[in-house]
Amino acid sequence: xxxxxxxxxxxxxxxxxxxxxxxxxxxxxxxxxxxxxxxxxxxxxxxxxxxxxxxxxxxxxxxxxxxxxxxxxxxxxxxxxxxxxxxxxxxxxxxxxxxxxxxxxxxxxxxxxxxxxxxxxxxxxxxxxxxxxxxxxxxxxxxxxxxxxxxxxxxxxx
Length: 158
Hints:
By secondary structure, the protein is of the alpha+beta class. Helix content is 23%, strand content 34%. The chain is built from 4 helices and 6 strands; from the N terminus they run H-H-H-E-E-H-E-E-E-E. It has a 6-stranded antiparallel beta sheet with strand order 1-2-4-5-6-3, covered by helices on one side. Strand 4 (113-124) and strand 5 form a beta hairpin. It is globular, with a radius of gyration of 18 Å. The N and C termini lie far apart (59 Å).
């Protein structure tokens, strides 16, 4: 238990780095939230097609772990966000994640450029299934593959 506790404790440098972050209070609808600013800043949507979205993301140092690799939580966040974006419908509430399964196949490090492809696998009523592939854009190496199911209100047929 002591080894786990020691592993999870922040170093003084890490603590100072987090303490130095300053963000003004969030005003809903008019500015980015801390989450959007910290976790999502840098995702570039390159192309959108029916049922697909193609993105590029340069791994920022802020999303790396102590070993300098893209944190698994950051990868999960990318799968969640891109999987949700590919089924988003303007004017309807955001869908809610029901289930997510991610295979972590390799790693990425700071400044690696990733290609993220989200695809709709299928939709029935308010339920949607998506697939998200994260790969190194330079080497083509597959970093992660995720399946994401979501539920939301669907458009009326009237």
